Amino acid sequence: MIEVHNFLLPAVLSLLGTLWIHPKILKIAILKNLVDNPDARKLQRNPVPVMGGMAVFFGIVIGICSSQAIFNCPNAFMLTTAMLIMLYIGTMDDVIDLSPKMRFIIEILVVAWLMYVNDASINNFWGLWGVHAIPEWISWPLTIFAAVGIINAINLIDGVNGLSSGFCFMASVLFAIIFYNSGNIVMTTLAVSAAGAIVPFFLHNVFGYKTKMFIGDGGTLVIGTMMSMFVINILKDDTECAIFAAKGMGLIPMTLAFLAIPIFDTLRVMTSRIIRGTSPFYPDKTHLHHMFIDLGFSHLGTTVSILSMNFLVVIAWFVTYKLGASIDIQLYVVLAISITATFLFYGYANKKLQKNGKTLKCLQRIAKAMHFEKKGIWIKVQNLIDKL
Questions:
Q1: Is 33 buried (19+), middle (13-18) or exposed (0-12) by CB count in 10 A?
Q2: How many structural domains is the chain composed of?
């Protein structure tokens, strides 16, 4: 196994790359008025530059290129090309509003192309329900459905400061740990590059005042594409992660736990829209982060709460695995907690919002306690970040 310090170079250079390019892209976005304007559905009060995805992409590419000096990563070029296409499409959507149907078709084509050139798909259930290898006619549509679903789930949680970037940082670190311990050098490099590139953007997005940017659709599509490729590389039949499956670890429950809240919140929202007779892609304010804001949580409080919920799912899965539970039981635990945290909690809290009862007041007290912004240390950090 390669020493962990060999992965510090791509991680650090990704971080420095994003840190260096961020103010330059911010200046361009302001000069060209490439901003996200507030409206009835959005939560910001002022126009905010929306080109943060370019900074993150630049950092990721720097990390991937630097890794070539240490490792041979032949598949990295293909993934970088796919991310560039997604960045281009997402940025066009940020600027001129592409139709959801057009963007959806392009996402399918990009995922299918990646599957073809890498000869990789979700073609093994690794013992879940007693199923192992699955035929190509099932694996291809299943992979496209899962990958496009993950990409859009990441895109749809981008509603409050730090949420999508904070979540993807956490997921990238978790995937990096798994890939490193399985000996998958290429995916470890990609995961640490993503984690490193996200850090400066996250700090500017959460703490910055003059330097705040949104990651935009370009950024969420780029990172969502990486997340989907991580999942495919874990669930393909020749995955290095087979060593974990041999020890009773459920690979499907694991990947589902890592991405639990975005996936299940997206399923809940789209199901609700279909039931109401509207398009599943029609924007509204029924996401989990909207509910937290309605309860009185700040942006950072909302981000911390949702990330904590997802980490709870990961911990529950890991404890279940360590206790020796079967792969099926691991999946059911992940499903139970994820559904409770999204479908049931949203329904319960939203119902309480309609009534001025004790439960609502309790939730509002918790929300008030999580207002970290505008306090002494916050202002100091904000001033520091704005100088970077």
A1: exposed
A2: 1
